[in-house]
Amino acid sequence: xxxxxxQSLISLFLREASQVVKDHSLLLTLLIAPLLYAxxxxxxxxxxEEFDVKLAVVDDDGSRLSRLLQQNIDDSPIVELIHFSNLxxxxxxxxxxxxxxxxxxxxxxxxxxxxxxxxxxxxxINAARFLPSSDLLxxxxxxxxxxxxxxxxxxxxxxxGMSTTIAMENVMPVNLDYRPLFNERSxxxxxxxxxxxxxxxxxxxxxxxxxxxxxxxxRSRLGEWLGSGISNGIWGKGxxxxxxxxxxxxxxxxxxxxxxxxxxxxxxxELSILLLLFIVTLIPMAQFIGSLFKSxxxxxxxxxxxxxxxxxxxxxxxxxxxxxxxLQWLSNLLPTTPFIVLYTGIVQSGASLWDNPSxxxxxxxxxxxxxxxxxVRLKVLxxxxxxxxxxETE
Length: 394
Hints:
By secondary structure, this protein is mainly α. 67% of the residues lie in helices and 5% in strands.
């Protein structure tokens, strides 16, 4: 008597669980790697911002204004000033890598500013390292503008007899009200970590499930796996990964997010629906890719190699519109691309799942696409298994 589909799914689920326990490579990839990577990479960016970036300073002005500039810059948690007596020493320290740059205050800076002449200070930064250079520039530039405006405000008030309001209008005719939203401190860690956790979830699932399918071909077990039907084979094996990685997603959002102090501004229910759809889309995609390999080791090597390229072309680390056109086409074939748009919108911006219907439809269409090509690919492999036709007839 033929088994009911539900019984076949359960038996295939238990079969997959048994194989994972016996296969050390799968066990390492599926049960250890997700947690290890999440905590290891998360710990690197746990502080989210840089502190005490060393900046050499040379003060040839020796004025009250120059001392005020240095005091305010040094009070910033991001910058640590190191004083030098001449400019050559400061440059040498930057060239040797002991400082990330130098700040030079030339003679006559305060006098020029008080007489309403342009006063120039020099900020030279080693831009070979992106984060320290951008952090130094942002902090020092803001402090210089603020103090310069304050000195001129006092001049207009004392010398010209202007009221505070009129003097302020002369000092700053255009006032920029800068308000960074969602990532209020513009920290690199707060930007990177949510996407990094999602990438860890995706890649460990893809690597593990691709390995499992390649192992079926390597050990000639396709008949055993697909014997109860191709659809049952796909979703019976996939059920194990759906439950396992749904658990990981729940763990990341409730444990790692709290440990790393990451905000979750949107609806937890809508995020759960999105993660479920994402995992369900990855399951046939992984089985299709895994079915292209006859060697489990080669499959592992290729999928491990794909991790960084996938991260780069999905539009998270670099704007999608700035990618070459051919990479945009390739990126649109990856479930990660629409998922990241929806995921960051919910987690970081507090958006609804339904606020971006095009990305949601994109992900659903990719689920349909990979389900079809996975079914067709496994059907072709099944037709080559000895006795498969008679088995289907029976």
